[in-house]
Records
---
Amino acid sequence: MGKVIVVTSGKGGVGKTTSTAALGAALAQNGDKVVVVDFDVGLRNLDLVMGAERRVVYDLVNVIQGEAKLTQALIRDKRLDTLFLLPASQTRDKDNLTTEGVDRVITELKRVFDWVICDSPAGIERGATLAMRHADIAVVVTNPEVSSVRDSDRIIGLLDSKTLKAERGERMEKHLLLTRYDPARAQRGDMLKVEDVLEILSIPLLGIIPESMDVLRASNIGAPVTLADARSVPALAYFEAARRLAGEIVPVTVPGEKRGIFGKFFGRKAA
Amino acid sequence: MSIFNLFRKQRSAPMARERLQLLLAHERASAGSDLVSILREEILAVIAKHVQIDADKVHVKMERDENFSLLEIDVEIPLHATLQAA
């Protein structure tokens, strides 16, 4: 039985879709079978970030409404044959996402894949609560900025009350993924530090993704960061995060911190 | 930017941290129910039962501290209204 991960945040634009694609590709590069599912009905973008926008025929809503089979809607990645995408509908209303329909699709995906990664829409409405409903693990994507931290706190509350795990009285495993971090600004006292965000939200740290041009470059060419340039700083940070998701104990490094040229070679080889 | 500005300008991250801690402490405590807005509605309803209130003459203020919230309701009651009530 595969594990279900929800990538969520409350606030928009913090890096949910980027992180879904990057973590999905990182896990798939280990040979695991991975599917990334876009829950943002009406505003889909995971297809674009993954570079599969011209290959979408059927989507999640088609499958839920019985207009297409799951196997017809799944798009296999051209670069990684263990990575799949289930796109969201661009034209349908989000009310077409029914609880029963989502239950059925996720149950089926769990049987086939090692990892089912659900990319949540922003907000706390239906799409977001359905994306988190089946999760075993939640990745809370947060920027070191007040409004993002506040919204993450709200989402953590929902993860503990509005999910199947919560309804069964089980504890939801939650991890913080701090994105767009700028170590220099944090050092100067102009940006919340990693420790500040961790103390306020009090959930364990999955990884720190630095603010980087490589992230924009990857989305420009339509490739997950971990595939576009596997040796870039954000890619290395996502690889580390993926290893932690898989249960490995990996010490957290603050990316962007200056390392010597030997350290750099060493670090790259190790990843 | 001169070197003096560098020293004079206060660092903003500690403020962000403090504001968040205070805000979230309140939001977590009142998750689901908004006690203050319920109080505001009910208190005003009780007053309106006895005196006609001019909506423009009602001032509601809210102050949040580490340990408590302060709800201040300021209702102006016109003179003729008090006479009517008496």
---
Amino acid sequence: MSVTTATAHQPAIEVDELVRTYRTHTGVIRRRRLDVPAVRGVSFNVASGELFGLLGPNGAGKTTTIKMLITLLLPTAGSARVMGHDVVKETTEVRKRIGYVFGGDRGLYDRVSAMDNLRYFAELYGVDPSEQKRRIGALLEMVGLTGREQEKVEGYSRGMRQRLHIARGLLHDPQVVFLDEPSIGLDPVGARELRQTIKSLVEAGKTVLLTTHYMFEADALCDRIAVINDGLIVAHGTGADLKASVANRTIVEIETFGVTSEAVEALRADPEVIAVNIEERDQSQILLVQSERGTQIMQRLLNRLGETRIGKVVGREPTLEDAYVHLIATTSGADGSAARAAAVSV
Amino acid sequence: MASLTRNARLIWRVWQFTMRSFLASEFFILTAVLQPIIFASIAFFLFQAGGDAAGEQTLLYAALGTGMMGVWSTTLFGCGGAIQWHRWEGTLELLVAAPSRYDMVLLGQTLGSSTFGFYSILATIAWGMLLFGMPLNASFPLLLPVALAVAILSLATLGMLLATSFVLYRHANALSNLLEYPVWIVTGMIVPLSLLPGWLGPISWFLAPTWAMEAIRGSAIASEPPVLAMLICLVLAGVYYLLARRVLRFVLDKARRDATLSLA
């Protein structure tokens, strides 16, 4: 399935039926070879200056897709081009034009200062020596690390590290920036600042490919979103398009205490219930029941829960997160065939 | 020409960064400071136990040999450890995905390791002078720094060749421990090559530390300038580099195919 953008210009990123299978082995004496498909044929285009979101749960194939686009992994099949350059054959040309930022603690030299890190990477990214000082200063200012640049990175908080990651990824002023779950582990204030920084990248004319599993983040930032599950794109469009796929539904949130799996199955068995998802809280479980007549069948739903202790019950309109949860829940299959069969265009 | 200048600058910057990283590691500093002192003490006592053999020149011979043992250990540890350290830090992928030539980056790193290791020779000589009254009368004092520079280059390129396998295989740097002692012996660092079985000779000829040792000892205590040893060092450095570059191309391609770069 393809996600294409009608544009007069060449897309910044073109992905065509990209496939990646990992080979692994099990056993010591009787070794068996296993081929694990991570990406099963993904296609999409990202227009120049667009902020494109690749959304999916852990293990869906987001990072594998990005690693093929940034030339770190060879595709098993299919092709991809970044700024018109093939990611397999023209690696140097691709690398000159891209920046790569990932979330988490790794990817920096902890024992030396932030300034040492940035100087080192500026050299590796081929930043002109006469430009380096000005460029590093501007980026430190942009990510809010001015004044802290001489401190060792090992003393940095997660948020500071993430900002340093972004500064590193932008040192050579890349045309395309890949952000792989950049907000992972950030506190709410840090995540909000990060979103602001990402917005400013697009305002500066960069093309951004963002992977995340936070729906609200994708909704707040992305021009278009592709939802990937089991290595396949199962839906794509704007945030509004995705929401429209569940627009005719209502969500009933039922707070329960110690709900049993039998009770949940009883809910699922109701002919008017489309999906039931569970959010675990400290002491309670929130059942998110999707149906087309949610509030009208509320009493019936509660009856199906039997002896389960019930807290608050709220009916509401679906959000983008509900659309995402629905998509992931309905397209997850053990062998991926369900995902392939259920691929939908919205 | 611009490319040459750019690559020379890249190597220089990577060398600087590698040195800075070593200096920021207390573990590495402790090892680098203590190891040559321990090696040197053992060697001096051994040579002193040899009675008559422990003349001034013999002590210098031992000091330079044990110094080189430290250099080789640091080169091996630095090259293997550097790749492993980059894996742990999650920076190996960033280095490979950067537009700069990775062979230049690797050469800068291994040059940094070897240079750091040469502190070992200085420490051993200083230790010998302080505790064992060893005089420092080099036969060719002007040639000695050249011999040291050539030795650094040849050991760094050998380290680079070894490091290419460390890029591909996560646990390959365990081999670095296995390569430490045999190279000390085979290259004549502590026992003169003439005392070893003859079949070891051809092996030692292909190992740069043999000629680096001869170049350094020759500059310090020989009667003839060790020009041939220095030339062989340079030739071997060139061969190692070209081999490493070729292997690296294959290794990086395989690492992209097998997805091994991000494994810690």
